[in-house]
Design goal:
Elements: H1 8-27, E1 30-35, H2 47-56, E2 60-65, E3 75-78, H3 87-94, E4 98-100, H4 109-112, E5 116-117, E6 127-131, H5 138-145, H6 149-159, E7 175-177, H7 185-189, E8 193-197, E9 201-203, E10 206-215, E11 218-226, E12 238-241, H8 247-256, E13 260-268, E14 271-278, H9 288-299
Length: 306
């Protein structure tokens, strides 16, 4: 009687070989960090010290300024510090086998916010006027101004106008109103601005801001307390390390396509209120040395993609 060969050992050997290949790739990944054309990866970003940790781990990390470079990489990271990434930059990042944040080309407030107020929609509670663009729209305005002398002059003139007519507005200058009906008509009409319900989390006399920074399956989570109505790095009085993030926030991360970034949010009346989603988070007032334990922890999140 003929003997039927058992294919199981061969399958197991092939599976082990594939696992070895994946393990080797994980140990020595080639990573391309895609920044805007003409830009660099500055020290202010979380990703800068994370990249240094990756290099120490044996990975090859390159910073690529804009599309078109002839580069081989296993992983790309879309790290263009603009609210809406130019199409050619986003397409270039997605050409690599693994594209971290490849689905985050648009992080405008009109896309991420669930609390936008529209003129005449019947809501007349407290509101905040902020820019549709990330970080007050300052990056886009500066980029546009750099295109020519006339553009710089035009930007300078517009910035001298009353705030409802400006093309950008630093986050520290966002306007809060007791009722939507008090928002100037010009602000409603300015496409640079949005109006949101002013929803804040309070603990006694303090305003709360929760911050979730993540890369793959690694994350940090904290609560900042301030006496100011808008919590910013320079007015935080205390930071508290938190545990697990709410499931609703994880759902938002999946919907927005984020692999790496920072979400600022609050919990108001038992629900998650997302304020900001940022694919290029900065260290703020912290030095990389202060943040290093968390930086190393986040760097390990690369393994989730390899």
């Amino acid at each position: 009687m003929a003997t039927v060969a058992n294919p199981q050992p061969e399958r197991e050997a092939a599976a082990r070989a594939r696992a070895d290949v994946r393990a080797e790739a994980a140990q020595r990944a080639r990573i391309a960090i895609i920044v805007h054309r003409g830009a660099t990866l500055e020290d202010i970003y979380f990703l800068t010290p994370i990249a240094e940790v990756w290099r120490e781990m044996g990975h090859q990390v390159s910073v690529v300024s804009g599309p078109g470079a002839d580069i081989d990489a296993d992983v790309s990271i879309l790290h263009v510090d603009l609210t809406i990434v130019p199409d050619d930059h986003a397409a270039f990042a997605r050409r690599f086998p693994i594209a971290i944040n490849g689905k985050t080309a648009d992080i405008s407030k009109r896309r991420i916010s669930r609390q936008i107020v529209r003129r005449g929609d019947g809501y007349d509670g407290p509101v905040i006027v902020k820019t549709d663009r990330n970080c007050g729209g300052v990056k886009e305005a500066s980029l546009a101004a750099g295109s020519s002398l006339s553009a710089r002059c035009a930007l300078g003139l517009r910035r001298r106008l009353p705030w409802p007519y400006r093309p950008d507005l630093p986050t520290a200058q966002y306007r809060i109103f007791e009722a939507a009906c008090r928002v100037p008509r010009a602000a409603w009409r300015n496409p640079a601005f949005i109006v949101e319900r002013f929803l804040t989390e309070r603990q006694g006399e303090f305003t709360c801001l929760r911050t979730w920074v993540f890369l793959g399956d690694r994350e940090t989570h904290s609560l900042s307390l301030s006496r100011e109505p808008i919590v910013k790095a320079d007015n935080v009085l205390e930071r508290i390390v938190l545990g697990e993030v709410p499931d609703g926030l994880r759902d938002m991360r999946r919907e927005l396509g984020f692999d790496f970034g920072k979400f600022d949010y609050a919990i108001v009346d038992g629900r998650v209120v997302l304020y900001d989603a940022n694919r290029t988070p900065t260290l703020g007032r912290f030095s990389p040395e202060e943040f290093m334990p968390r930086i190393k922890h986040l760097a390990e999140g690369l393994g989730a993609f390899l």
